[in-house]
Every structure is written in C-alpha cells, then in structure tokens.
Design brief:
By secondary structure, the protein is mainly alpha-helical. About 75% of the residues lie in helices and about 0% in strands.
C-alpha cells in the first residue's frame, strides 16, 4: 500500500467515528517524523517541541475534516508544525538551554576520535540553529527530512524555485559558519 493510500485510510478511519483508536493510529504514524522537525526547529528544546506537537494535533484534528487532499497529509501536518514552532520561537527567548550547556572550548588536546565527531556534530547543530528561521526550515525539510522542493513549496506557500534558492543560501550560510569555526577556516 502506498503512503497516500495509507494516509487516506488513517484519516478516513478517524473521521468516520472520531474514535480515540483512529486518532492513536494517526498519531503513531505521523508523530515521530513531525517531532523530529519540531525538535530541530525548536533548537533541541524537548519541552518546546512537545508543546509544538500537542498544539499541532489540536489544530489538525479541528481542521482535518476540511483537508482537501491537494497535498499529502504529512505535508499538511508539517506545515502546521512549522507554524506552531514559529509561534513558540516568537514567544521564547533566543537562548537555547541545549546550547548553553555546550563547552566554550575544548580543554584536552588529546581527544578521542568519537569525541572529535561529537564536537563536530555539536558545531553543525549550533550552525543549523543559528540560521534564520526561513533558511533553517527549508534546510531541515529538504536535507534532513527529505521533502521535495514541490512539497516544501506547498508547506511554506512559496514557489519551488524559491525553495531551491533558499536552500542554496542556507547551505552557503551553514558553510560560512562552519568554516569560521574551523581552525582551517579562520583567518
């Protein structure tokens, strides 16, 4: 069974009876990927990401009967997640508890390879979190979650060309930030 058919069956099962079981099936199917997006948009803050998911499901359930199937259900739900995340980010301070916990410098000159990898990942996470929201959204949706430019265009109500150019700019900004952090990239 293809993804679209499964999505339609999940929605139809829920709408037929508005049953808790129907909701649980939709929740179990969609929430893991939606939570990853929310977590990345909320800069790793789990409580905020959980709030985003809760608000997203409240809005989705209120509006699902009017969903037109012009896109996939996953695409529609992702759009709601992004809107909820934007609202949460506007309401919260700019500092992420996750980032505040990272060390400023590395004290030991003899790190193991896995520790170096961990610091490289932390640099990447910090660089992604530092991107402007629009760049971060497109980078997460395309490069991490695998959405096509057409799907991103639908989610963000932009053109596929805008999605492509924003992704290019996001990658450029990411490279610049990472090169600036790298000892080889600093001047």
């Amino acid at each position: 069974m293809d993804e679209k058919t499964m999505e339609r069956q999940l929605a139809k099962a829920f709408l037929a009876e508005r049953s808790e079981e129907g909701f649980r099936q939709m929740y179990a199917h969609f929430t893991p990927s939606l939570y990853r997006i929310a977590l990345r948009m909320c800069k790793g803050h789990t409580t905020t990401a959980e709030d985003v998911i809760q608000e997203m499901w409240i809005r989705a359930i209120e509006r699902i009967s009017g969903f037109s199937w012009a896109s996939t259900l996953r695409t529609w739900l992702t759009g709601i997640v992004l809107n909820c995340a934007r609202e949460q980010l506007r309401d919260q301070s700019k500092n992420s508890p996750f980032l505040d916990a990272l060390p400023e410098t590395v004290s030991s000159p003899t790190l193991f390879a896995d520790e170096l990898d961990r610091f490289a990942r932390q640099d990447l996470v910090q660089a992604v979190e530092a991107l402007p929201v629009g760049y971060r959204e497109i980078l997460i949706l395309h490069d991490i979650e695998g959405f096509t430019h057409q799907s991103i265009a639908t989610i963000l109500t932009i053109t596929p060309g805008t999605s492509k150019s924003q992704l290019h700019r996001a990658r450029q900004a990411l490279r610049e930030t990472l090169n600036h952090k790298s000892p080889r990239g600093s001047k």
